[in-house]
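TICKET: design request
STATUS: open
ATTACHED STRUCTURE:
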């Protein structure tokens, strides 16, 4: 199994460290941390897709204007999942499955770039996306990005088992048991984490359950004020977001849980996982991980 960590929606919001906690100037940095996983028998599996090629080329009408103005995306087609894959020598037709944390515009934009892939997500998220209720629902969910929704495979709360104390969908149709969908509602109605088992333990892509590593790994937990404001504005349920963050903090501190976790938008985490991937890249080893 080879795991590529890819930034498929780089953003440069104003605010510097007020947004990301580290940037010294007036401009901050946020990422859209996606995964492309090469599997032995199931083709390439994506975790989220970031912004798609059409979003990068013609963002007006495809992306919500207010959010785009705040985040200040770098509209570079070469940063899409489609172009990343081509640079890695992977063929888009080899993408058979896409596992979604949720369907927000900055996560689902590339779905239309992989029209043959089965899309796995929680049933509650599919229902919320189709309803597009309220101002927030209309902003975050962009049907123009989805392509044919008949290829969606949704999972209900009745299908869950357990994974390190969390509810979990342990059997995703057509995927090996190394892929687990972990419901984490709060940021959106059907938000989920995606857990992947590797020879060195589990990694959990926590999506937008948190926006900055300090919310999970610092004591006391905190978030840069700009990111905290955006996180709150985009939350379907802020109390649920806080509850899920508390559960992730407990997981991160559990010595009996061989799990590393990361979120979508933290640039420091992305750089760390990129460097980690480079160190772990070993021909003939158990796992080959790469980042770009």
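STATUS: resolved
RESOLUTION: sequence designed for all positions
ATTACHED SEQUENCE:
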């Amino acid at each position: 199994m080879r795991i590529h960590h890819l930034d498929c929606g780089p953003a440069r919001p104003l605010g510097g460290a007020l947004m990301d906690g580290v940037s010294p100037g007036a401009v901050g940095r946020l990422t859209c941390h996606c995964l492309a996983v090469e599997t032995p028998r199931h083709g390439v599996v994506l975790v989220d897709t970031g912004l798609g090629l059409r979003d990068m080329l013609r963002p007006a009408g495809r992306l919500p204007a207010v959010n785009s103005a705040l985040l200040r995306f770098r509209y570079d087609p070469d940063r899409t999942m489609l172009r990343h894959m081509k640079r890695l020598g992977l063929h888009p037709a080899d993408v058979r499955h896409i596992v979604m944390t949720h369907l927000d515009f900055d996560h689902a934009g590339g779905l239309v770039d992989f029209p043959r892939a089965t899309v796995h997500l929680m049933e509650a998220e599919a229902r919320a996306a189709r309803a597009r209720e309220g101002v927030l629902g209309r902003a975050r969910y962009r049907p123009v990005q989805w392509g044919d929704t008949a290829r969606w495979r949704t999972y209900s709360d009745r299908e869950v088992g357990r994974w390190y104390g969390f509810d979990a969908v342990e059997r995703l149709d057509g995927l090996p048991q190394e892929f687990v969908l972990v419901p984490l509602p709060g940021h959106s109605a059907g938000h989920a984490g995606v857990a992947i088992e590797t020879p060195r333990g589990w990694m959990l892509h926590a999506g937008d359950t948190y926006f900055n590593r300090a919310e999970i790994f610092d004591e006391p937990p905190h978030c840069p004020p700009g990111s905290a404001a955006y996180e709150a504005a985009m939350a379907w349920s802020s109390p649920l977001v806080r509850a899920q963050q508390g559960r992730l903090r407990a997981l991160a501190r559990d010595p009996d849980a061989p799990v590393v976790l990361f979120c979508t938008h933290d640039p420091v985490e992305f750089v760390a996982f990129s460097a980690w991937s480079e160190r772990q890249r070993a021909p003939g080893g158990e796992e080959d991980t790469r980042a770009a």
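CLOSING REMARK: The chain has a mean pLDDT of 94. Residues 226 and 251 are 26 Å apart (CA to CA).
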